[in-house]
Design a protein that fits this description.
512 residues, alpha/beta
Length: 512
């Protein structure tokens, strides 16, 4: 059974092993113990209790345990500038973790059996003596320290994880290939080129966030790379990623990229985050990534979204918290031709919006027409459309249920030897849907308004619907019905035509 020694801020009173269970839920700051289930014996005391106890000079905390038998040592949150404690530790420990201290120099030359060394968040630490002797080191964490020169990697043939983020390191020392290294974090360092990274041909994860790199040249050699983070860099192109056939995660947020139209993304990508870049629309090639589960396009100003974006079959998220989840994340993104509220609607409505607003305009005769059925729920819209689709025949079974959202059905007719395609739009009549209607009201459309003749508010409801569409279409009513439903002063520039003539002209107009 492994013995793990952990030092941290602890309660003032002594904690016996039998009582440790009640502290399992404490935060790291209160009780900092790793691999809890495998700890054999740990006692924290607030003062010296006996001749077998240690009184640590740098703090008020003491500890009694057979530290020479420990194989893992974790030390955290000690505000001290010197570290005499290491003199009392077994020199054969496998892991040494010292964080959040005020030490500026450390000598670990006697700990040559270590395979994991964590010196994170020691902001004054600039020198680590003896580290070059640890030839079996597999994990090295120097992040958030003041170290300026990276240890010579030639001394660590087995290195597997290397975290140098938030340091002053500007280059990677070493010329021998490190095939075992799988994780490399160079975030917020002085690194300016990807060329030196080629000594890690088997990298799986690489972070270059907030570095001074301007190009990804050389990164195409990392054939096994699965995750690449280039956020907040000055890169302008990412053509190199087309050769990364194992890539599943890519972050290019807040870079100088202005276009992605010609980029061939690997089909393996599952997460693509590009918040805050300068493109104006989402390239169709991104919409073709069948394995994509997360698309980050927050904090952007887009002209439009391509209708092909629906092919990704992902949810749209516009709130900040949702950015952490899978889906198409558009927090704080403005789209010129789309109101934000559209993306908050059910998928059927979003699909209908794209169909209504992104139809390709071909400069030739189109034998198509759009017919929109409006009215309150239960007025007969769906029933009438079903009859039109079935050659005016009555269906044996009709559920009579209200249409959820928007239903679009197409039907072909032959008139004078020509085939005509009619798009029937059936809007749900529920009150919650009424605010959505105006997003789909366009010119060159035939609108059919339904009212319930058995409802004594039919005049009021007719006025409501006709006011909604009057700015988009000429009104078609029998002359004697106009006074009962609307006054001529209420509807300006209305062309009053017999219904049969107007319908015929409207359909002919749509076909021209």
């Amino acid at each position: 059974m492994r013995k793990i020694v952990s030092f941290a801020s602890t309660p003032n009173e002594a904690i016996k092993w039998s009582e440790l269970g009640k502290y399992k839920r404490l935060s790291k700051e209160e009780l900092y113990i790793y691999d809890f289930e495998n700890i054999e014996e740990v006692h924290f005391i607030g003062s010296k209790k006996g001749e077998n106890d240690y009184e640590i000079e740098e703090t008020k905390w003491g500890i009694y345990i057979n530290m020479e038998e420990a194989i893992l040592l974790y030390i955290c949150s000690w505000q001290t500038k010197e570290f005499k404690l290491l003199e009392k530790i077994n020199k054969n420990i496998k892991c040494l973790d010292i964080r959040f201290t005020s030490i500026n120099e450390l000598d670990i030359s006697e700990f040559d059996k270590i395979n994991k060394l964590v010196l994170s968040n020691n902001r004054y630490l600039g020198l680590v003596n003896g580290i070059e002797k640890i030839s079996g080191l597999r994990e090295l964490y120097l992040n958030n320290s003041s170290i300026e020169k990276n240890p010579d990697l030639n001394n660590f043939p087995e290195i597997y994880v290397l975290n140098l983020s938030n340091t002053l390191i500007s280059d990677l020392e070493g010329d021998e290939v490190r095939r075992n290294c799988k994780f490399l974090d160079l975030s917020n360092t002085k690194i300016k080129s990807c060329k030196t990274i080629q000594i890690f041909p088997n990298l799986r994860r690489l972070s270059l966030q907030e570095t001074d790199i301007v190009s990804l040249k050389g990164i195409e050699q990392l054939k096994k790379l699965e995750s690449l983070n280039c956020r907040d860099t000055r890169i302008e192109t990412i053509n190199e990623v087309m050769n990364l056939e194992a890539l599943t995660s890519l972050n290019i947020s807040y870079t100088n990229i202005k276009t992605l139209d010609k980029v061939m993304f690997p089909n393996t990508i599952r997460s693509l985050v590009m918040d805050g870049i300068g493109i104006k629309t989402i390239p169709v090639n991104i919409c073709m990534l069948k394995n994509l589960r997360k698309l980050g396009i927050s904090n952007m100003h887009l002209d439009s979204l391509p209708p092909e974006i629906l092919d990704l079959q992902l949810n749209f998220n516009i709130d900040e918290e949702a950015r952490k989840r899978n889906g198409i994340n558009l927090f704080n993104t403005k789209i010129d031709n789309m109101d934000e509220s559209v993306l908050q609607q059910p998928r059927t409505i979003i699909s209908a919006w794209f169909k209504n607003n992104n139809r390709v305009r071909i400069p030739k005769k189109l034998n198509e027409a759009k017919v929109v059925f409006l009215g309150d729920g239960g007025a007969g819209k769906t029933f009438s459309i079903q009859r039109l689709l079935n050659n005016c025949e009555m269906q044996e079974e009709f559920s009579g249920e209200s249409t959820p959202g928007i239903s679009i059905q197409d039907c072909k007719y032959e008139i004078n030897g020509e085939e005509i395609l009619i798009h029937y739009w059936d809007f749900g009549g529920q009150e919650i849907m009424h605010s959505m209607h105006r997003m789909f009201l366009t010119k060159r459309t035939l609108y059919v308004v339904f009212v319930n003749a058995r409802d004594n508010t039919q005049d009021e409801r007719a006025r409501y619907w006709l006011h909604n569409i009057k700015s988009f279409a000429d009104l078609v009513l029998k002359e004697h019905e106009a006074a009962r439903w609307l006054t001529r002063e209420e509807l300006t520039d209305v062309e009053w035509l017999p219904a049969d003539v107007a319908v015929a002209e409207k359909i002919e107009e749509e076909m021209d």
